[in-house]
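Encode chain A's predicted structure.
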Amino acid sequence: MKIIGIVPGASLFGSDDLYEDKYFFVNNYAKRIRACGGTPVGILCEDGYVIPECLDLCEGFVFTGGSRFFPYHFQTMEYAVQSGKLVLGICLGMQM
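Encoded structure for chain A:
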């Protein structure tokens, strides 16, 4: 089973709370990853910083849509490029 890191955007509804829209986060990205045989993993701690150990566990990353980029987007993308791990970008995540 592949472990996929979910890289959240700020809430699509204008908030800076990265996990504010829990319904959208859980019932779309994580649920779909599980349906495809993967294991979804959040990569951020509560203060919005990347957990390096989570990056190492992941075999790929989903960059979700959102309203703008944050430092953790760049940190995760740099890690993915340097390690050769797979990336799927959705909406703004695709622009990353």
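The beta strands are 3-7, 39-42, 60-63, 86-89.
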